[in-house]
Give the backbone structure.
Amino acid sequence: MKQEEKNRISRERILSAAFAEFGAHGYLGASINTVCANGRISKGLLYHYYADKDTLYLACVNQCFQELTAYLSGHLDVETVTLDQYFDVRLGFFREHPLHQRLFCGTVADPPAHLKQQLSDCRREFDALNEAMFTAILKKERLAEGVSLQDAIWQFRLLGDFFNTYLKANSQEIPQPEEYDRLCRQTLHTMLYGLIGQR
């Protein structure tokens, strides 16, 4: 077996064990010792590929967001997407990838503060796709008087920040992933269409 193939297999083993650990316990509760024990990986091998816990966590988060973004891009048309289609497809991805779902929720709802910039970099393409889809949804709607498209997009960003800050401040733990997605969908739907149903 070529060295390149051995490196790929080793990285996959490490990331698989790390996904499970970070997904189950979050960044703070995760343990490198547990990653090594559950993955039957020596610490020497792990540290050969990943310098420390931060590097390993960021590798998992980066892979999570890359794969989620690729899935959304492959299953949704940015020009015709609806809010419900977006969340249905996202939930479909997470049902197929439960480890990604737990890691995603932990990262967006309770990220380690000292990795804020690096996590923002990991999310860049995902955030850009979200904004493009939300913009397409807004373009099909008649905005309230005095609200520009740029205003609405800014409020969309602000709402996401408030939502995650509220969950972190008012919950003992992050909601279960399906509940997290339900709350996200409901909050955005309310932002777009209001609390009062049409009569």
